[in-house]
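Objective 1b. Sequence-to-structure analysis of LysR family transcriptional regulator.
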Amino acid sequence: MRRMPPLKALRTFEAAGRLESLKKAADELHVTTGAVSQQIKLLEEFIGVDLFKRMNKSVRLTEAGREALPFVEEAFELLNQAVIKAQEFGNQKLITVSVAPSFGAKWLLPRLELFRRGHPDIDLRVDASTRLVDFSLEDVDLAIRYGPPKERGLHLELLTDEELFPVCSPRLLERGHRFAHPSDLAGQTLLHFEGRADDRDFPGWNQWLSAAGVAGVEVVNGPRFSMSSMVLQAAMDGQGIALGSSVLAADDLRAGRLVRLFEISVRAKHNYYLICTRNTFNRPDIQRFVRWIKAEMGGDRDESSDRRG
């Protein structure tokens, strides 16, 4: 059998040829432009033919490169289909999902048993992290992130938007506190979330009170937290009133650990996305997980719009 060139070099050639850009190929492969150039040079030396013409600020496929590219693209597609077919014979499948710690604790973990009952042949491995995932190097299949998406050359699946509204422990109501109007928040301890550093426009108490048409409520003081899960826990402990997320507070509202005080809500600027490679998205087990999580999030959104304390 004829000796084959390195698979990494072929993958780099396919990306650079398809995108007609070394920089765009580097972004898609999550490597540097220099690394792309090095892999292409390695491939050209291996086969003894130039595949690209180097311009001042761009590259262009040579005649040899144009002839070879469709066969390389087809080869990678066949490899992908072979992997998918082989995976279908596995009795137990494993999906590794990277999620932010608060999303994992407040949304995904309470639903793991529900997912397992409906999909007993799929195990989930949960990786709690907010880092940018390098799917080419890390053992991660999917990432769920609050936008805006930073990844390029990947499949993005919109999951849900996010709304914020006041929530508190039912114990506050049992103590005689009454919240007939948003102005009744005056004098209450307001809990603050300061963790969305990548979204400076993320709604806080000022935005919600403005939407409610209320002035004169003091919003400077009050405990501050870097994680959404901590804000919600403080509210459940009766320490004050939080702006609950339609996503992260859904399970606590359903269980009665939190109560929604008013129908008025403010919408976050960005959305939640599921992120993975295009090849991974085509896997049957991934498709089943995506259908499940979108259905669950759709149900949460419908319930939160109907629920009021």
